[in-house]
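Support request from a user on the community tier.

User writes: "When I paste my structure tokens into the form, the page sometimes reloads and wipes my input. The last time it worked, I copied everything first. Here is what I submitted, just in case something in the input itself triggers the reload:"
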């Protein structure tokens, strides 16, 4: 089964958004206690931090998570969240992950997201997995 994996700080903005999706999701721990490993394809939901400053926009917990071979391998897409006050760096962490790991940036939303964002993300995720599964079938044919 495909899931969402997400990181949320103590503000819980991303957590609250992901809960509204009603999709199976696993949270990257705030405190790196032990290796957190995903063993199936997933989409990463990631907020941008530190006013979108490039060097620190991706939380270190996410960097550590993606430095694990399994986690890197199963990453299939990314959804970014952020604050529009960051200007051109709005959702920059999603852009960074998308480029670095060569996965599509599927959607961007601000802070807690709107009801429209929830609908768009749910529909987009369903379409994305269907497309990915179809491509996989065609490769195996």
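"...and here is what came back when it finally went through:"
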């Amino acid at each position: 089964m495909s899931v969402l994996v997400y990181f949320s700080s103590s503000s819980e903005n991303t957590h609250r958004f992901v809960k509204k999706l009603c999709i199976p999701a696993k949270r990257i721990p705030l405190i790196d206690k032990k290796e957190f490993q995903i063993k199936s394809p997933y989409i990463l939901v990631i907020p941008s931090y530190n006013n979108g400053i490039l060097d620190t926009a991706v939380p270190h917990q996410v960097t550590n998570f993606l430095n694990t071979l399994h986690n890197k391998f199963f990453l299939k897409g990314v959804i970014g969240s952020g604050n529009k006050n960051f200007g051109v760096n709005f959702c920059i962490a999603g852009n960074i992950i998308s480029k670095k790991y060569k996965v599509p940036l599927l959607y961007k939303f601000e802070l807690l997201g709107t009801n429209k964002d929830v609908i768009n993300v749910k529909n987009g995720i369903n379409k994305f997995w269907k497309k990915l599964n179809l491509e996989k079938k065609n490769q195996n044919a």
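Agent notes: The reload is a front-end session timeout and is unrelated to the input. The chain is about 40% helix and 20% strand. The two ends are 22 Å apart (CA to CA). Escalated to web team.
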